[in-house]
Amino acid sequence: MRPSIRLRLVLAMSLLAAGARADISGTWGGSVLATDRCNSAPIRWSSPLTLAVGAVSGQEVTGNVFFTSVPSFDARCATERTTPVAVSFKGRVANDLLTAGLVFRGRPLGLSATIRGSSMDVIFANPDFTATGTLTQSSTQPPPSLLTGFYSGTYTSTESVDRCRNLTSITSAGPLTANVVQTGPFVTATGTISGAKRLKREADGTCSALPAGDLLFQL
């Protein structure tokens, strides 16, 4: 083989290798070890994690992250309860590196993942939180996410009250918004309810319904 032909083949193979990108679409599962903060002190916890990656378009990628068990802490930093948390992400994939951004507990959180065939080393990080782990690809098909999206509408709610001389119920009504994230069989939602009323009791046994402000909810 002539040197010029060999050189062109080597360059072509190098360019193909540099531009190659791992096929990361599908479902990845494993667990992460997190370092959190409570009262400015570090606290550690772990959770199973599912990463659902949609179809990759060029270098753009979207998907969902599902933490199975995220703790909430009391004033002494003891775990009060654990809840599932699902959030969507949007990022880019180049060669074997995925970088993305998401919002976790109301704050921006970075995601960096190194793909090694059917395994993936993930790092989630912001100034107050880090989580690391290794995930394994269990499916190359993106999980169902039909319900994922932003919803808005109105609501009406009537709550019965007792021990009030002048009221038997309180009615609240107003707009409602919800951000729904579906990761396969898991669905979570966060949103805002406006127009809610709260009960105020007077010493003489009468009651009044006062504005409660916007209420946040998580399902």
Write the layout of secondary structure elements.
Layout: H1 3-19, E1 26-38, E2 41-53, E3 60-73, E4 79-94, E5 97-104, E6 107-116, E7 119-126, E8 129-139, E9 149-160, E10 169-183, E11 186-193, E12 197-201, E13 207-211, E14 215-218
Antiparallel strand pairs: 1-2, 1-8, 2-3, 3-4, 4-5, 5-6, 6-7, 7-8, 9-10, 10-11, 11-14, 12-13
Task: Please tell me about this protein's structure.
It is elongated, with a radius of gyration of 25 Å. Strand 4 (79-94) and strand 5 form a beta hairpin. The protein has 1 helix and 14 strands; from the N terminus they run αββββββββββββββ. It is mainly beta. It has one helix spanning 3-19, and strands at 26-38, 41-53, 60-73, 79-94, 97-104, 107-116, 119-126, 129-139, 149-160, 169-183, 186-193, 197-201, 207-211, 215-218. The protein has an 8-stranded antiparallel beta barrel. A 4-stranded antiparallel sheet has the order 9-10-11-14, with no helix packed on it.
Low-confidence stretches: 3-20
- Describe the global form: elongated
Question: In which order are the strands of the major sheet placed?
Answer: 1-2-3-4-5-6-7-8
Helical stretch tally: 1
Helix content: under 10%
Order of helices and strands: HEEEEEEEEEEEEEE
Instruction: Provide mean pLDDT, rounded.
Output: 86
The radius of gyration over CA amounts to: 25 Å
End-to-end distance? 66 Å
Decide which structural class fits the backbone. mainly beta
Strand content: over 45%
